[in-house]
Amino acid sequence: MNVILSTELVSRIEDRIQSILANESAGNSHIREVVRRTGALPLALDSGGGLSLAPNGDIIGFFWDHSEIDVEQDPRLVNMALLQGSLKYPELEEIVPPRPADAAECPHCKGTGYPTELEGSGIENIVCYCGGIGWIPPGDDGGKLSLRTAETPSGDIK
């Protein structure tokens, strides 16, 4: 899925990518390798892999334990990547999609962005099914398990 980026934003993304690549600190080696591999700015990372934004507007999905990368097509995962990325890189706020009129409130967080079943748990680093945006794209049933693996890159469980 491709995101339309302004010329100025492309330049800022390229600058951020170059900054990551130029940072030779040991603590940055993992992220630097992701950027080298994908040619994109990491937006959302988890134990399985992550999603990055390429300067051409593609959202790139990758796994830590596989060399393959792909352009993410799932609108929910794209939304999650853009919202989570905007929390790290405020200049990306302009590309976080607004809620469409036909989007449904996320059944897992009731629109808050944080799973209701975890309220009061003290766990703060959890991202809801909706990616924290509070709604799910039209056509997403909001309940299917979405687990991206090398065997099921779309996230659909077979």
Q: How does this model look, in words?
A:
This protein is of the alpha+beta class and 158 residues long. Helix content is 25%, strand content 14%. It has helices spanning 7-22, 29-38, 75-88; strands at residues 41-45, 49-53, 59-63, 69-71, 104-105, 135-136. Mean pLDDT is 89; it is low at 144-149.
> Count of DSSP E strands?
6
Major beta sheet, specifics?
4 strands, antiparallel
Radius of gyration: 16 Å
* Overall number of structural domains: 1
Total DSSP helices = 3
Task: Kindly summarize this structure in a few lines.
With 158 residues, the chain is α+β, with helices and mostly antiparallel strands. Helices cover 25% and strands 14% of the residues.
Topology:
Elements lengths: L6 H16 L6 H10 L2 E5 L3 E5 L5 E5 L5 E3 L3 H14 L15 E2 L29 E2 L22
Antiparallel strand pairs: 1-2, 2-3, 3-4, 5-6
Helix pairs in contact: 1-2
Key traits:
about 160 residues; alpha+beta; two-stranded antiparallel sheet; 3 helices; about 25% helix
